[in-house]
Amino acid sequence: MTENAREAVGKTSGSDAEADGCAADAVRVAGACGGGVEGETVLDRYFALSDTAGEAPEDFEELVSLFSPQARIFPGRGGAVEGIDAVRAFYREFFDRNVELRHVWKARVQPDGQHFARWAVAGRRSSDEVFALSGCDVAEMDDVGRILKLRVEID
Questions:
Q1: What distance in Å separates the CA atoms of residue 135 and residue 103, rounded to the nearest whole number?
Q2: pLDDT tens by residue, 91-101
Q3: pTM over 0.90, yes/no
Q4: Sign of CA pseudo-dihedral 145, 99, 76, 36
Q5: d(Cα 44, Cα 145) in Å, to the nearest integer?
Q6: Helix, strand, or coil here: 129?
Q7: How far is CA 64 from the centre of its chain?
Q8: With contact defined as beta carbons under 8 Å apart, do 54 and 101 qualify?
């Protein structure tokens, strides 16, 4: 992970989620709400790398390596993506289309083992259009801790 991606984990994964009204569901550390697991999750790495992988080839490769060879992605828009080659192509196209991204998120591992993250992103597309979105991601892991299934839900 590049230094920029390491800095992003430290700065953005702890950002407040109160604005979306579901901060109790979006914390990644165990507390009064319960259900969280303390420490960096795979989705923390995923979002930190998502801000840098479009410009840093080593971060792109690390992002792809977070996924199982049999991974399935269900993006918020568009059809399902299946298999590591399709995952690589999906993210290559994604970063070609979205040239600058800044995420804030809260991630946790739920009691059932699924990884959950509440997120917001601001970005700039290759067309120079500026955009902002928010949503949540739910991921299931394989036996070695790679993302097997990722469901993206855009608000």
A1: 11
A2: 999 999 999 99
A3: no
A4: positive
A5: 13
A6: coil
A7: 12
A8: yes
